[in-house]
From TrEMBL:
GO MF term set: extracellular ligand-gated monoatomic ion channel activity; transmembrane signaling receptor activity
Source organism, top-level taxon: Eukaryota
Annotated ranges, domain Neurotransmitter-gated ion-channel transmembrane: 237-304
Name under which the protein is recorded: Gamma-aminobutyric acid receptor subunit beta-like isoform X3
Spans through the membrane: 226-246, 258-278, 290-316, 322-342
Transmembrane helix found in the keyword field: yes
InterPro entries: Neur_chan_lig-bd (IPR006202), Neur_chan_lig-bd_sf (IPR036734), Neur_channel (IPR006201), Neuro-gated_channel_TM_sf (IPR036719), Neuro_actylchol_rec (IPR038050), Neurotrans-gated_channel_TM (IPR006029)
Organism whose genome encodes this protein: Branchiostoma belcheri (Amphioxus)
Entry keyword annotation includes Transferase: no
Gene that produces this protein: LOC109462745
The Neurotransmitter-gated ion-channel ligand-binding domain, residue ranges: 34-223
Length: 418
C-alpha cells in the first residue's frame, strides 16, 4: 500500500516537472527546418490506401478515415547508407507533409526505410504513415437526398513548389476497402480512388509562395430510401389529404380552413425535420424545394377554401378548382420525376466512367509490374509512356468536376521492393 502511494507521488512529481519544463521552454527550443544544401527541387511520390472509411457527418460536413500513406523521394545526401539504422532521421531533410484539411488526428505512426536501386548508390527514402483522423469536406447538397459526394484527403508540403512537387507513384495501385465502410446503411462507397497533385491558390497562402497539394478522393453516393419514404412520401400524403377539404360544404369556410391549415402546420413540422438533417446552408436542396412546393400547394388550397364561401356558384368553383389543383400536382410531380431521372442517370454515368478509368489504370500498373517487378515509379518522364502510353494517365485526371488543377505526373522504376 505504501509502495503504491510512493509510485503515485513520483508520477505526480514527474508530471509537475514536465509542466515546468514546458513553461520554461524558450525560443531556442523551436524547430527550424533547413533548406536542402544542394538546392535541388525534390519530387515526392505518393501512394494512398484507405483502410477504413468511417462516419460521414452531413451536418458537420466531416468524415473520418483510417489511411496508410507512403511517400518516396531520392536522397543524394544519404549516399553510402544501406540500412535505416545508420540514419538519424530527426536530423535529415524531409518533405514536411501535413494533412491540409484534417480537423483532428487521433493516431499518426511514422516509419522510415531506405531502398537501393541496382547500379545506383543514391538511396530512395520511403516514409510510411498510418493515420486515423477526421477531415473537413465542403459538401455539395443541391441534389440532396439524391446527391453524391467527393470525400477528399488533402496532403500539403510546407515547402513551396520551387522546392517540392508531388506525383503519384505509378508502380503500385491506390486502393480503398469497401468492406470496412461503416456508413454502408446510408451511403454507397465506390471502389475507385482518384489521386492527383495540385497546388494551392494564391488566396490560400499568407505569403507570396504557393505550395504543393496532393488530393486523395473517394466517391460516395447517398442511399435516398430513408428520405424518400420517411419525408417525401409523407409530405405527398399530407398534400393529398388537402383534397379532403372539398368534402366540407363551401358555406362552412371555418371547417374547411381548419382541415387545410392543420395539414399545413403538419408540413411545417416536417420542414424542421429536413432542416435538422442538413448543415446551415444558404441555398435550397432538392428535398427543401419539394417540401416548399407542397406547402405552397396547401396555401393555394387555403385561398381556394376562403374564396369558395363568397363566390355565387360555389359547386362549379369547387369542381374547377379541384381539377386545376389536381393538374398542378400531377404536372409538378411529372417534371420533378423527369429531372430526377436525368440527374441520377448523368451522375451514374460520371461515376461509371471514373470506375472504368481507374480499372484501366490498375491494369496498366499490373502489366508494368509483371514486366519489371518494380513497385516505385515516378521520377522520370520517360517511364510514363512505358506504363500508360503517350496519352494522359488514366485515373489521374478523369473528372473535371473535381475542380483541381491539372498537373502531369512522372515515373521511374526500381528493382527492390520495400
Amino acid at each position: 500500500m505504501e509502495s503504491q502511494l510512493v509510485v503515485d507521488r513520483l508520477t505526480e512529481a514527474v508530471e509537475v516537472l514536465r509542466q515546468v519544463e514546458s513553461n520554461l521552454r524558450t525560443s531556442s527550443d523551436e524547430v527550424w527546418h533547413k533548406r536542402r544544401p544542394d538546392g535541388r527541387k525534390v519530387r515526392v511520390l505518393i501512394r494512398a490506401s484507405i483502410i477504413s472509411l468511417g462516419e460521414i457527418d452531413t451536418v458537420k460536413q466531416e468524415f473520418s478515415a483510417d489511411v496508410w500513406l507512403a511517400a518516396w523521394y531520392k536522397e543524394p545526401l544519404l549516399k553510402g547508407k544501406k540500412h535505416r539504422e545508420e540514419v538519424d532521421w530527426d536530423d535529415q531533410w524531409h518533405p514536411r507533409i501535413v494533412l491540409f484539411n484534417a480537423v483532428s488526428v487521433d493516431k499518426h505512426e511514422k516509419k522510415h526505410h531506405l531502398i537501393l536501386e541496382e547500379g545506383d548508390d543514391v538511396p530512395i527514402v520511403q516514409q510510411s504513415n498510418r493515420i486515423r483522423a477526421t477531415f473537413k469536406e465542403q459538401m455539395e447538397l443541391f441534389d440532396f437526398p439524391f446527391d453524391n459526394q467527393e470525400l477528399t484527403i488533402q496532403l500539403m508540403s510546407d515547402w513551396p513548389i520551387g522546392q517540392v512537387e508531388f506525383a503519384k507513384n505509378m508502380g503500385i495501385k491506390d486502393t480503398i476497402r469497401t468492406d470496412t465502410f461503416t456508413g454502408s446503411q446510408e451511403w454507397e462507397l465506390f471502389g475507385h480512388l482518384l489521386c492527383k497533385p495540385s497546388i494551392t491558390n494564391q488566396d490560400q497562402s499568407t505569403s507570396h509562395y504557393r505550395y504543393p497539394l496532393y488530393n486523395i478522393t473517394a466517391h460516395v453516393q447517398r442511399k435516398m430510401g430513408f428520405y424518400v419514404w420517411n419525408i417525401a412520401f409523407i409530405m405527398f400524403l399530407i398534400m393529398a389529404l388537402s383534397f379532403t377539404a372539398f368534402s366540407v360544404p363551401p358555406n362552412e369556410p371555418a371547417d374547411r380552413l381548419g382541415v387545410t391549415l392543420t395539414l399545413l402546420l403538419t408540413s411545417v413540422a416536417f420542414k424542421f425535420v429536413v432542416t435538422q438533417s442538413l448543415p446551415t446552408i444558404s441555398y435550397l436542396t432538392l428535398l427543401d424545394k419539394y417540401v416548399l412546393l407542397c406547402m405552397i400547394f396547401q396555401c393555394l388550397m387555403a385561398v381556394q377554401n376562403a374564396l369558395a364561401s363568397i363566390v355565387s356558384n360555389a359547386w362549379l368553383f369547387d369542381l374547377v378548382s379541384m381539377a386545376v389543383l389536381a393538374g398542378i400536382v400531377f404536372f409538378t410531380h411529372l417534371v420533378f420525376g423527369v429531372l430526377m431521372f436525368v440527374k441520377i442517370r448523368s451522375t451514374n454515368k460520371q461515376l461509371r466512367q471514373a470506375d472504368k478509368e481507374y480499372l484501366e489504370l490498375c491494369e496498366n500498373i499490373d502489366r508494368f509490374y509483371q514486366r519489371t517487378k518494380c513497385t516505385i515509379s515516378g521520377f522520370t518522364d520517360e517511364e510514363v509512356e512505358a506504363i500508360v502510353g503517350p496519352a494522359k494517365p488514366a485515373g489521374i485526371d478523369n473528372s473535371k468536376q473535381m475542380g483541381i488543377d491539372e498537373t502531369q505526373t512522372v515515373r521511374v522504376r526500381v528493382s527492390s521492393k520495400p
